[in-house]
Amino acid sequence: MSNAAYRLDEADDIGKPTKPRCAAVEGGKICDRSTRHGKDLCADHIIESPYAKWIIEKLTLYNSEVARIKKSGSIKSIEEDSFVLQEIVKVLHYRGSKSIKGLAREISMEIDVVEVYARYMARRKLAKLRRAKKADDYIIDLIGAPTFTSPSFHA
Hints:
The protein has helices spanning 43-46, 50-72, 83-95, 100-106, 111-123, 151-154; strands at 25-26, 29-30, 98-99, 127-131, 138-142. It is elongated, with a radius of gyration of 23 Å. A three-stranded antiparallel sheet has the order 3-5-4. A two-stranded antiparallel ribbon has the order 1-2. By secondary structure, the protein is α+β, with helices and mostly antiparallel strands. It has two domains: 1-48, no CATH class; 50-154, Winged helix-like DNA-binding domain superfamily/Winged helix DNA-binding domain (Arc Repressor Mutant, subunit A). Helix 4 crosses helix 5 (111-123).
């Protein structure tokens, strides 16, 4: 637990820590809202941090891309520097071959959307698709090690 999140109560001369309070400064005054889990900032100020803004930006990008692919259902809708595609390649690289249904479960994405990405990867020779033992599914085998050239891989 961070000591910075604790302030001494003026009436407390023993020096016992009080409830954690936000350490952010707003208009020359300390925020003083309570925090959770010993954090230095309250929820309102954590959301304003550069890291939280970056996460929100990535999630927005991810969700808008998935919605676009779901609506079109076409591999033509996938851009070469697709953020979602890069995330799928990472999962396959680190976790190994997956069935389309298994990958959909693991990354919390609808099966029909994962199928579009799988077809795109096969067309671009990033992966091979082979029929799974269950006739209604395919296994995605990544071909070679991925090359992470897009800025979103490094961000």
